[in-house]
Amino acid sequence: MISTTVRLVNLNIARTSVVPRAFAAQGSTRSMAALGDKFNMKEKVEEDRYIRAREAQLREAKAKSAAAESKAKELETKSAELLATKTAAMNEVAALLATTGDVVSEAGLANLADWKH
């Protein structure tokens, strides 16, 4: 009777100590896989966030470059217009002075054209 009781107690101890460990070990591998999946999902989210940020930086750089190019073209056009206006004014002053027989240097004509406009 004592040996039967001892066996039953030992069997209950074995069940309570061994069986939960086996289930816990099984569950832990599942949770590790789940943790791996969650980590992979988070990693994917971080990669996507980085890619979107990088694409935004590239779009901003491209927009700035396009704006700088258009500004340079605009300044070039404006500069050509100003040069054409100044040349026309210099030619007009030179023609006026030629009718009276006066002569003025190029620098003087440039100054008169600047003064006129």
From TrEMBL:
Keywords: Coiled coil
Coiled coil: 51-92
Superkingdom, natural source: Eukaryota
Entry protein name: Uncharacterized protein
Lineage: Eukaryota, Sar, Stramenopiles, Ochrophyta, Bacillariophyta
